[in-house]
Amino acid sequence: MSFQKFALHKLLLKGIQGCGFDSPTEIQEKAIPPALQGQDIIASAQTGTGKTAAFVIPALQQLADNWAAQRHSGKTQTLVLTPTRELANQVTENIHQLGRFMRIRYANIVGGMPYPPQIRLLNRALDIIIATPGRLIDHINNGRVDLSQVKIFVLDEADRMLDMGFVNDVKTIAEQLPQQRQTLLFSATFEDAVQDIAHQLLTNPVKIELTHAFKKHAAIRQHVLQADNYGHKHALLRRILNDQELQQAVVFTSTKRSAEKLADQLKERGYRSAVLHGDMKQTARKRTIETMKRNRAQILVATDVAARGLDIKTITHVVNFDLPQVAEDYVHRIGRTGRAGMNGIAFSLVGPSDWGNLQEIEKFTGDKISQTTFQGLEPRLAKPSVPLKRSQKTPQKRLPIIKHKRNGRKTPAMESPPGSSQHSTSGNTSDS
């Protein structure tokens, strides 16, 4: 199937072709036709499936239709809500790329940035607003946002939004919108909370549920590496990072403190590493992402703030140095690689207290992740016959890190086993 069959505006088609899109993905093929017909949609789709374009393309087409019919009021036509800054930035970039040949006026309104630039943007006539709930509520409460003419309301990653406690904000924002509107809700799951909010905000929605989310990661080879202790994890990590096929990698940790510590340790060993976590200022986070995109850093050590919305096509490896506490986050983490038709590889380092988490991940994905070993770094401890539950976990003893520069053979003591467009406006500023 070709995008031509959607009967899109020629300038929008030109933007799609300019992005290198030849044919729609599964979610685009199923969501775009009903969206173009004005129907409400509730769709289950993971990041990396092309879901952003599945709602951006109908929104841009509606703008083109309104211009052709001279029905444009000069007020905001589309509102996109996302749970995090990173996702808002990703949506903004999609709008910029897909609408590059159209006169689209849009603003990215998220937390973590000064208010004055956003206020100036909101004083202009905007076609599309991309926002996170908290900051948008602030502007609404101060009378800076007119949402009275919104025709398309998009809730991106609604499950994550609700998990982060934005349910009341979403309802408050929805109250500012016309009752006669189109609502498009995208979620990784159809859990009860998502169904509840959909029932309240959508009208006779078309339900789109793709094949199991994990099948979308067929381009990613997944492996479990058993680690006896913290030092063993470091040895395994360095073996992974020395892979000659590695272009760039994201290494996930559970806390901001551990992310900063690990990034520093990798720098001490000569790796070009950077860190990304939720407590960083937005300017610092943007700078870090640009550093990766320009290949000035090879390794990004991150918390789950980077699991959604981070789109760097040269990431070939993902490493779960710490397993995620929420099984669904595993899917989003590994989805940072294997993008845009590329192949990727994901390693999960599983310590003695991590088997319960791994069991939950495999239950969520419906797949058994293959266990592998590296020669010379095989585990010495036996794998538990019965996975530990979270309540049974005990803290791992962390071995001291011995500083060692990456010159010659890397054999520190701990390595021994198991020891913007001219027509667009954008204020890049989330509540995460």
Helix and strand arrangement:
Blueprint: H1 10-18, H2 26-36, E1 41-44, H3 51-68, E2 78-81, H4 85-98, E3 106-109, H5 115-122, E4 128-131, H6 133-141, E5 152-155, H7 158-163, H8 167-175, E6 182-187, H9 192-201, E7 206-209, E8 220-226, H10 230-241, E9 248-252, H11 256-268, E10 273-276, H12 282-293, E11 299-302, E12 315-320, H13 327-334, E13 344-350, H14 355-365, E14 370-372
Parallel strand pairs: 1-6, 1-7, 2-4, 2-5, 3-4, 5-6, 8-13, 8-14, 9-11, 9-12, 10-11, 12-13
Describe the structure.
This protein is of the alpha/beta class. It folds into two domains: about 5-210, Rossmann fold; about 215-415, P-loop containing nucleotide triphosphate hydrolases (Rossmann fold), CATH 3.40.50. It is about 35% helix and about 15% strand. The strands form two sheets. Strands 3-4-2-5-6-1-7 form a seven-stranded parallel beta sheet, with helices on both faces. Strands 10-11-9-12-13-8-14 form a seven-stranded parallel beta sheet, sandwiched between helices.
